[in-house]
Write a structure and sequence with these properties.
This protein is an all-beta fold and 123 residues long. The chain contains no helices and 11 strands. Strand 4 (32-39) and strand 5 form a beta hairpin.
Length: 123
């Protein structure tokens, strides 16, 4: 049974930091592209960052060097360290997995999703 369980969301003031974590199970984690997406009500889900099985990292333009994605294949965990948070970063953040080494920005390409964790950044 595949599971992606996010944790680490919460409320923080602008300029603060949060670390999101995703615990994965039920599939061969090391062979998957892993990504973080986010969504606000009324808007499409968008990819924030991704990391493939070669540990190549990809970031959305709006990240602007503030976030770092990492994965630990030994522990089957995916992290997103978010620094210098802005109110516009407020969203529900989702962990997602796509089979194969190539990371896509398209949500239908991702087979597995977590339940999401809320991030709220106040000004």
């Amino acid at each position: 049974q595949v599971q992606l369980v996010e944790s680490g969301g919460g409320s923080v003031q602008a300029g603060g930091s949060l670390r999101l974590s995703c615990a994965a199970s039920g599939f061969t984690f090391s062979r998957y592209c892993m990504a973080w997406f986010r969504q606000v009500p009324g808007k499409e889900r968008e990819r924030v960052a991704a990391i493939n099985n070669f540990l190549d990292r990809y970031y959305a333009n709006f990240v602007e060097g503030r976030f770092t994605i990492s994965k630990d294949n030994a522990k089957n965990t995916l992290d997103l360290l978010m620094n210098s948070l802005k109110p516009e970063d407020s969203a529900t953040y989702y962990c997602a997995a796509k089979n194969g080494p190539f990371c896509s920005v398209t949500t239908p390409d991702y087979s597995y999703w977590g339940q999401g964790t809320q991030v709220t950044v106040s000004s």
